[in-house]
Amino acid sequence: MATIFTKIINREIPCHLVHEDAHTIAFLDIGPLSDGHVLVVPKEEREFLHQLSDESAAALGRAVARVSRALVEELGCTAYNILQNNGADAHQAVPHVHFHVIPKAPDGRGLGIQWKPGAIDHAAGAALCARLSKRMKPQVGDP
Fold first, then answer.
1. Catalytic pick from 23, 37, 96, 98?
2. Residue 49: how many CB atoms within 10 A of its CB?
3. How many Cα atoms occupy the beta-carbon half-sphere of 131 within 13 Å?
4. DSSP string for residues in 77-106
5. How many angstroms separate the CA atoms of 62 and 23, rounded?
6. For residue 127, what are the contacts with CB-CB under 8 A and spacing of at least 6?
7. How many angstroms separate the CA atoms of 105 and 98, rounded?
8. 98 belongs to the catalytic site
């Protein structure tokens, strides 16, 4: 599964590198929605978030938080979005897990979202919650 991100990880394509560790790489998006738009990508090649190992997922979470802190400190932004899509139907353009960290600029540039909330059916929600809880498998290191 050699995507453009794999080529960036392997240094076959240059990037504006913001961060790298054993499990992740972060770099400026070449089509930014605002200044400081960063992509945070696991080095583990998986299309969907649920396919990542726990190690890669944990490292990805740490890297997203660190990049966010750096952007807030450097740009002085008071708001930002974290975006992650899974699958083409969910607007994933590159089939390799990645998070967008998108600062909201004072002039309004950044991510625009239309949110159309519904209403929860509490009985159905409770039943779904019970089924999901049964599928949550304990992992090594869980309390």
1. 98
2. 16
3. 6
4. -S-EEEE---SGGGT--SSS--EEEEEPPT
5. 10
6. none
7. 22
8. yes
For the stretch 45-87, pLDDT in tens is: 999 999 999 999 999 999 999 999 999 999 999 899 999 999 9
Copy the structure tokens of residue 141: 């290191």
Cα separation, 22 vs 15, in Å, equals 17
> How far is C-alpha 64 from the geometric centre of its chain's CA atoms?
7
**Separation between Cα atoms, residue 130 and residue 9, nearest integer Å:** 40
Residue 143 has pLDDT above 80, yes or no: no
Which domains are present in the chain? 4-111 (3.30.428.10)
